Amino acid sequence: MYSGYSMESESAHIPPWTVQTVVVQGLLDQTAHSNAKISSQAYLEVAMCHYLGFGVARDLAKVIEYIDKAATKGSFQARRVRRRFYDAFAQPCDPLAIDVPLDDDEERQILALEEVEAKYTQFSPFRTVDNINQECFRDSSDISSLTLHEAAYIGDLSLLRDRLASTRDHEDSSGRTALFLSCEGGHLEAMKFLLENGSDPTIPDEDGHTVLHMLIMFDVEEVECALSTLLQFYPDLDLDTYSSQVMDASEHWCELSGTPLHWAVLSANKELVKSLVQHGAKVEGWPHDECPIRLAASLHVAEILEILVGGLPPEYELQGESPFFGLDESNPMRRLLIHGKMYREAVEKTVSVLSRTWPVIDSSLASWNGNPLRKILALNISHADQYIAKALTKFGAGNDVHDGFTLVQTAIVGCRGSPLPTMDEMALDMLELQPSAISTRSRDYQPGWTALHWAAAGGITPVVAKILELAPDEINQRTADDEARTALHLAAESGKSPETIRLLLSCGADPALLTASLQLTPLGAFLSNQRSELNDEVMSILLAASAHINYLAVGSNRWNALHYAVGRAAVLDAEALPGHLLLRRIADRHRAVRALVNTTTAQGWQPLHLAAYFVDAASIAVLITDYSADFMAYTRVRRPRAPV
Q1: I want to staple 554 with a disulfide (CB 3.0 to 4.6 A). Which of 5, 305, 458, 559 is the partner?
Q2: Which tens digit of pLDDT belongs to each residue from 334-356?
Q3: CATH superfamily for domain 406-500
Q4: What CATH number belongs to 511-644?
């Protein structure tokens, strides 16, 4: 399987399912940690895994369950998003019994955020949280002893007048001016007063952030006045001052970087975006991964997106990928926090806005890379991707006639071999949308494979079932490559899913069919990919299916399962791997194979002859001790020879 959504790009690296499950188990182990901070963070990350489908089933009930557990253990982030997530998933949000309480200031911040979220659709959560910080600062300080910078931060005009009588605005140890701090505190009158008294808004702090970046801290109804005032005093103020230093706002599941416009978009501050664009902030000319329009698309903030698109010059021509390719690039948990119960509708509105300006499928790119739906299907990052895929399909992305690798095949690859049906939803949607693509053979990757071959190789049982429901005649179709394998060969070769193999056999897959070059049956294909471990359930299913053909594994020489297992064990032993353990496990668990110890190939060789031929002493010992092989038996062709 390829790692990125693009055949020419390695833009996304997603660990294999087996690795994901190990990561999740490690997180679950950490939830029992005695340190509440560690255990609460682990609970929070398990919740994210259930939303993403990373190593566990996508399960919205589990997301809420683990968010609640993180909240009870004292996670501010979990408390911050809890009510919003309950709204998003249409669940009643009952009070929690808290084991580890937040401190008093954090409790006040949570209550304030919940209050404004209940009252307003447009507000600055940054301002709401900082108001509590300022109240706490005032309560714990001797106001008369505050410095110029501290007075500016809490917006105390009387103190500012007093301090400026004996000093001028200057930078503190972090490079922040009093003007900067008045904006960080969100105080319009203090900002005006400092400007009137000569403060310079062009001075950045040590991270390159300016007063313009701090406009996200103002109440939304004040941002236009604040920006206009700054420009009134400094008409040439650079609206596009860029800082690559990231400001961590993890309490809002957010990181801020870039220009003031980037900050405004990332904080979902519509009024600030509107003001900056009206005053000339640069919307176009950014690398595609830093384009404000793409950022807005990634957050699904359709109203902000409309403002940004409206700020493009008439002669604007898109450079690089279209913003459609950014639809899944933001933190999906951040999107839930922004949109709450409207998160599904936000996706469709965003795609609708984009489709009025750009074609959904970019014909200027190679056919594989021109459709953003392919990226969504191939990466399959989170629960929300299904809604992104549906919206893109509604607006034309499903009309992709490129048959080198169909949308159906792309969606099947995006399941990534997960055994969980929650990862398969987009593939099932694509099968309903394009049933005619089921029999189409890929050209760009694994040439000659159909959808059933891809699904069987991945062990994706629900998708295999849907394909065979729609096209039952596909069951024994072969790949159009050198080996001409069937779906059963591929499922057996990967050995991932007993359920898939059982389903294929029940739908008429023929266990006697041979591959073209190696002449392997599905049983032989399974054995050829075994190391010292053994999937007993798959082995049992294939043995039962092959009983009527004498457990044939290789057709040309009439090798059965035990002959082939001996050959495979010899290869592994030669590679310094314990191949003979494969034989021992087969002997212990599969009596039908033990009974084959005296059967012969077309050349009259028994399994012990093969082990002797390969000089595999470990396998010889297993065959004699565990299988009771006759070490004096002779071959039956040409010059008869015994193993000894």
Answers
A1: 559
A2: 999 899 889 999 999 999 999 99
A3: Ankyrin repeat-containing domain (1.25.40.20)
A4: 1.25.40.20
